[in-house]
From TrEMBL:
Keywords: Methyltransferase, RNA-binding, S-adenosyl-L-methionine, Transferase. Belongs to the class I-like SAM-binding methyltransferase superfamily. RsmB/NOP family. Residues 537-551 have a biased composition (Basic residues). The active site is at C384 (nucleophile). Transmembrane segments: none annotated. Residues 500-517, 554-571 have a biased composition (Basic and acidic residues). This is RNA (C5-cytosine) methyltransferase. Residues 128-464 form the SAM-dependent MTase RsmB/NOP-type domain. S-adenosyl-L-methionine binds at C232, S233, A234, P235, G236, N237, K238, E280, D310, D330.
Length: 571
């Protein structure tokens, strides 16, 4: 088989490029080129997983004085990327076999037994080799602009029942922190993917829990007045989430208004109450953004205006943005919080440290630019990074520079998001000189330490002015809609995974005691969180019951009115 007809040729080529340019991320290499050079999603996924397993593969090949490396003549291969991909496919992929043919495959398969023996030995010494994200629940965000939680739950429940033969794995849970976010078992990813009808119709978005925090904080803080800017918006998941949250908020306000005080609306009932300006600099990503907004955002009280351009080049005094009151900034970052990101498995060399510092410099500039808009009162800054340089350090530097020498009496300050008040993991005290109070205002997620979602960082800023009340806006507790009887998620799938995991080797007694202590603290935090969520859910159920009663009474009044009108015509 010719090398360019191998089913792994595209993946091997991409991996070769990555190995030659370690100072760049895989996503940047794969998708920034655009055009016909963009790899398929399957090739990208294969390369990402191969990179995760590179330390294991290299260890297997180099064991016993490079015995297996010499046996398969690895150093002679010009296309080492292709060889790495094939070894990954044979030893660590789901089906553990190599498709196609060719000389490289023949050499690898010839020594398959020895390779598997070394792989088993390596795995026994490194039990954490598997992808932690494969044990995460499958999170599904319901797009309330196109569907309802109840309708989506009914469909998912049917699909889960068909797909799952294991007892207890057919339950759809409601997330305890993010409204309209559903929690499914990890194995749901095998049938619920981007080709699913619910996804293609725009009724649901497959979005990780932590990445929902940015829009949640932005929309839940304040009184929803004014316009918004999503500074780095492509591909648009956070943009559409912000629009959906605002849409739901405006709809709730209309329903809560007492009937006798409601004004009769004329003309278009979908009057624009808020505009989200979605900025994107890259032409390729901007096209993706526009396509996604057409798919996910419907005509409503919230308009999304995709804006092709560099956010940093927007003039804060431009009249077009005079009504902007909040900015959501989720800039380019290292992606080090994504547990299945290929770059996590590589050692941080000097090039990588320089890259992180370069990203931090850009992030600081972008955050300061967000704070420079004269009418903006709220800014949300987030990353999917775990590095202090991109998180607490950026926050600290931006605050120090933007609050220095202010003559208008305004000041930016960190505020703890009320909608995530029960989230236990917070920022790092002392980094960049942050006080404990400031660190406690910050939100962190860690997928490698039990949070069941990718690593993430969220900070929320408010501008205070001398003439204004400097207290933060108090928003209501935010939990998922439990009024249709969906149980709240409390780590049920995590407990299943842990019960099925192989027994670990006994640890040192001291470490065991420390682990128990840590576990007790986490359990207490979870129980506290669950109680608060249930309390909020009861409040919402009561509120919805009142709304239904009002709707029924309104229906009766309309019937009487129509009957009177009909009788009047007869007379």
């Amino acid at each position: 088989m010719s090398k360019n007809t191998s089913p792994y040729y595209a993946a091997g080529t991409l991996l070769n490029t990555y190995l030659q340019h370690r100072n760049r991320g895989l996503k940047s290499i794969a998708f920034d080129s655009g055009g016909n050079n963009v790899p398929s999603s399957s090739s990208y996924a294969t390369v990402a997983k191969t990179i995760q397993h590179l330390p294991a593969i290299n260890s297997i090949l180099n064991a016993d004085n490079k015995k297996l490396s010499k046996a398969i003549d690895f150093d002679s291969y010009k296309n080492k990327g292709l060889a790495y991909v094939m070894i990954y496919e044979l030893l660590f992929s789901k089906f553990q076999k190599i498709r196609g043919g060719g000389q490289i495959k023949r050499m690898i398969v010839k020594h398959e037994k020895e390779l598997r023996r070394e792989a088993d030995e390596y795995t026994s010494k490194n039990p954490s080799l598997g992808d932690p994200s494969s044990n995460f629940p499958r999170y599904v965000r319901v797009n309330v602009m196109h569907s309802t939680v109840a309708d989506v739950v009914n469909i998912l429940q049917e699909e889960l029942t068909k797909a799952s033969s294991e007892e207890g794995n057919s339950t759809v849970y409601a997330d305890a922190h993010v409204p309209d976010l559903l929690v499914l078992p990890p194995n749901a990813s095998s049938w619920l993917h981007h080709d699913s009808e619910l996804v293609k119709s725009g009724k649901i978005i497959l979005q990780d829990k932590s990445s929902c925090f940015s829009a949640l904080v932005c929309a839940s803080s304040g009184d929803f007045c004014g316009d918004y800017i999503d500074a780095c918006s492509a591909p648009g998941n956070k943009t559409s989430h912000l629009a959906a949250l605002l849409h739901a908020s405006f709809a709730a306000d209309d329903e809560d208004e007492p009937p006798k005080k409601k004004k009769k609306k004329k003309g278009n009932t979908n009057k624009i109450q808020s505009t989200v300006f979605a900025c994107e600099r890259s032409s390729t990503r901007f096209d993706t953004l526009k396509s996604r907004m057409d798919q996910l955002v419907s005509s409503s009280s919230v308009a999304v205006e995709p804006t092709h351009g560099d956010f940093l080049k927007i003039d804060p005094s431009d009249p077009k943005y005079a009504n902007v009151r909040a900015i959501m900034l989720d800039p380019s970052c290292s992606g080090s919080g994504i547990v299945n990101a290929p770059d996590r498995s590589t050692t941080q060399n000097s090039d990588e440290k320089n890259r992180i510092q370069s990203l931090a410099n850009f992030q600081t500039v972008a955050l300061k630019h967000s704070m420079s808009f004269p009418q903006v009162e709220r800014v949300v800054y987030s990353t999917c990074s775990v590095h202090d340089e991109e998180n607490e350090m950026v926050v600290s530097n931006a605050l120090a520079e933007m609050n220095s020498g202010k003559e208008d009496g305004s000041e930016w300050k960190l505020v703890a998001p009320q909608c995530l008040q029960h989230w236990p993991r917070r920022g790092k005290e002392g980094v960049g000189g942050l006080s404990k109070y400031q660190a406690d205002c910050l939100i962190r997620c860690d997928g490698l330490d039990g949070d069941e979602t990718n690593g993430f960082f969220v900070s929320y800023f408010e501008r205070t002015r001398v003439s204004n009340d400097t207290s933060s806006v108090q928003s209501s507790e935010t939990t998922c809609n439990a009024s249709i009887g969906i149980p709240l998620y409390d780590g049920q799938y995590k407990k299943v995974v842990e019960s099925e995991a192989p027994k670990k080797i006994e640890k040192d007694p001291k470490q065991t005691e420390e682990s128990k202590s840590k576990g007790a603290k986490c359990t207490n935090a979870t129980q506290s969180n669950n109680k608060a969520a249930e309390k909020s859910a009861k409040k919402r159920a009561k509120k919805l019951a009142w709304k239904k009663k009002q709707a029924l009474q309104k229906g009766e009044r309309m019937k009487k009115k129509e009957a009177l009108a009909a009788k009047s015509k007869e007379e």
